[in-house]
Amino acid sequence: MLMEHTYEIKFARELVPQPIVCEMARQFRDVMFNIDHLSVSKHDALMRISVVGQGASLQKAEKFLLSTRAQVRSVGSRPFAGDFPNVPVRTLAVPPGESPIHRKIWLTIIGSLRRYPLFWVLSRRYDITFNIHQSAVGDPVSILCLTLWGLATEIEGAVRFLREQGVDVEYGDISTLA
Q1: Is residue 121 assigned to a domain?
Q2: Distance CA 173, CA 77 (A)
Q3: Domain that holds residue 149
Q4: What stretches of 55-110 show up as alpha helix (H) in DSSP?
């Protein structure tokens, strides 16, 4: 039976730049997550995340979260009533000579799209790493600043995917990140 565990995670200043949710998605392929709430500044971060999976997988994901040095507190558990989104398998075709790049993007996510596990899908579908640097999350609008790094073709694919889902994506200046 699929269960949904909800955690509140507080990140200290030195942990804010770490791509923790991206790494969790890579390590635990049979666990889905969604960021329910997020408040990020360059000083600290507070995240509420729902993690969905089977018992042993959920325990491993929780152990991973605890290993990050963030303050992790369980705030609930219940049977999961939904379905995992279908994430197509991608084949990575690297153009000759392409090397990794960094891109800063601003996302504006409106309405019910905020409840779709966009970052989990990005982690599974594209060979990129991302980190959330700033956020303003409210109902019905969330605004987030991310840095993506990976091959340009993968980053372009991720941006195209976000736009296809209805997310407004704007590029920012990478040199302005603290």
Answers
A1: yes
A2: 40
A3: 101-176
A4: 55-67
Instruction: Specify whether the CB–CB gap between 71 and 10 falls below 8 A.
Output: yes
What are 110-137's pLDDT values in tens digits?
988 888 888 888 888 888 999 888 888 7
The beta strand positions in 54-167, using DSSP E, are: 71-79, 101-110, 128-137, 141-150
Q: Backbone dihedral region of 69: left (phi > 0), alpha (psi from -120 to 50 degrees) or beta?
A: left
Tell me: do 127 and 165 sit in the same domain: yes
pLDDT at 59: 93
Report yes or no on 66 lying in a domain: yes
What does the alpha-carbon distance between residue 128 and residue 101 come to, in Å, rounded to a whole number? 10
- The count of domains in the chain is 2
What is the percent of the chain with per-residue pLDDT over 70, rounded to a whole number? Answer: 91
Residue 132: C-alpha distances to residues 60, 76, 105, 106, 119 (Å): 23, 24, 10, 10, 10
